[in-house]
Predict the structure.
Amino acid sequence: MSALRSRVEKLLSLADVHVGGNRPWDLQVEDERFFARVMVEGSLGLGESYMDGWWRAASLDGLLCRLIMADLDRKVRGVSAWLDGVRAYLTNLQSRRRSFVVGEQHYDLGNDLYRAMLGKRLVYSCGYWRDRDGARLHELDLAQEAKLDLVCRKLGLKPGMRVLDVGCGWGEALKFAAQRYGISGVGVTISREQADYARGLCAGLPIEIRLQDYRELGAGADDERFDAILSLGMFEHVGVKNYRTYFEMVRRSLSDSGLFLLHTIGTNLSVNVTDPWIARYIFPNSMLPSAAQIAQSCEGQFVMEDWHNFGADYELTLQAWLDNVERAWPQLPARYDERFRRMWRFYLSASMASFRSRHAQLWQLVLSPRGVPGGYIAPR
Amino acid sequence: MSALRSRVEKLLSLADVHVGGNRPWDLQVEDERFFARVMVEGSLGLGESYMDGWWRAASLDGLLCRLIMADLDRKVRGVSAWLDGVRAYLTNLQSRRRSFVVGEQHYDLGNDLYRAMLGKRLVYSCGYWRDRDGARLHELDLAQEAKLDLVCRKLGLKPGMRVLDVGCGWGEALKFAAQRYGISGVGVTISREQADYARGLCAGLPIEIRLQDYRELGAGADDERFDAILSLGMFEHVGVKNYRTYFEMVRRSLSDSGLFLLHTIGTNLSVNVTDPWIARYIFPNSMLPSAAQIAQSCEGQFVMEDWHNFGADYELTLQAWLDNVERAWPQLPARYDERFRRMWRFYLSASMASFRSRHAQLWQLVLSPRGVPGGYIAPR
């Protein structure tokens, strides 16, 4: 046994993962080059060697959850992660020019993949797995509907209101709000595929979809102000250097008596980069905010009315997405080849592990410009 | 009319307050020296001249709320406020030596005053004016009981648990939790009067009361770890320089699977001092935390499970306290003289104004050391 192999095995055993073991979360090596790659490249090498078929596990999420909880990613960190940190410090990874990259690389992948994965509605953010009475839901479609309804209720939407959706995706939230709550509104996205789809989805409803960077909103002389603003799963692409700009845009686009709902994944520790594997293959130029970064960035612009954490629901959502997509591969086009499928499985499984280990959170904040007179009571 | 008077009148009119006007929130001047004093000393002069009977208003809280909402305190700021800022920067206002000052000056004032003011239970923090179904309550005693019950439910208290109350006041929360939820526990306070009272209140219950600084908790070799920790209305005395120390103390005193409930007044903007009048007459060495300061200070120690804002309930609580104490003055000892009464009225009215204007918040955070497996659902 090589010294390298023995070192990797020792590290993995700190997380109770055995190489060649027979528990679902144990790791089966298919190519011995795995050991060198994971030592040199850390999480990037772990993900890439999985994509290349150099190792497997019956329960990939179970394995990754144990690695996260043992903080192994901090013990084995390659040069690339350090370089990513330096790069994020020196440049604005989420500048206007760069922002369209994630649109093209991720969100324009093909609506067929997302349609297979996301269920009845194309909603690409965490569902809310409880009904209005707090009872547990058991279906993705119901959980997404409950989430959209929760957002509308938290915002107090009423017929006639004008609503802005920052990062509107395929337009499902605006469609839901228009049909169920009688609002009109505007959605912006930087994905051409999403914008085209959203326009079709919202046809006949008083909804306008714009292919636009959020920084262009409300900057003109003909400022448009909305009665309510929501942003579901888009803040993860904004980047800490732009948080204040983002909140300023929301503030100037919102009426003084309006509410803003921010729905975002959060992380327990303040950092300015994402995992290097995620950055390379899934979400270029993205990063998760910490509570401190959010609180600092919106200070002076908003009163924090409510901060709801339902991160555990993201594990359920991701499990449903993974089940859907595994079932759908045979029907999906051949351009999603075997390496892509392994990449996608690794992405969803690693995300599940982040939420199960409670290293990642799902936050919904309700913010008001001046504080709701008499106080705000947050629905659940 | 003097130039000074005209300048003050102009400033007040920005807040829609008229000198000599006939609306409840208008200001009636009894002594012309008022104008100079308020210009030179800002909020300190405003409060002191009220205590001296130099002015009055039918609705003191209504007047103060208008001043706060017009940001007048920032437009008229005396040298003393600036000096307080410098002093807070250079010294630790909440050092161990200084910490007992607020115990002696405020909390040891006399239990007779607090008994008259606070209602059936001696609970000196914001009530929760809703029942378990979310219906509005209408009595202080019910609101305090609902708050104590909410805290116990959020912490998931069960018979046999050991609970720590950091800043236990007169012991009401521990008594309630022991009687209703079957816990045992420890309370610490830096007020001798509170400690004596709390020992009597909790006699016969498995509750120990200590006259102790929070920094001494869990620092010894014989560390005691608790199943749950609560801290109601004490964090306002900790001071930003000690926030990390405070959270470290809580972390090392809490079992890995335990929950911590932090109940504190919060402010919209990060500062390191309090209002100079409040600092001199009511709470020496206190300061209100911002969301950013809290989030920064507990980062890396806790997962933020829930952040509940019910600041509007503090206005109701303060109104009830004010009504109680105004009714009780004739029965209270003569050492509470007319100037003291005016001081107390100004304190409660200014506090009401802070909450009504939404400049101050009441936060309950639930924090867990590693994240509750499967997620935490916060009761309301």
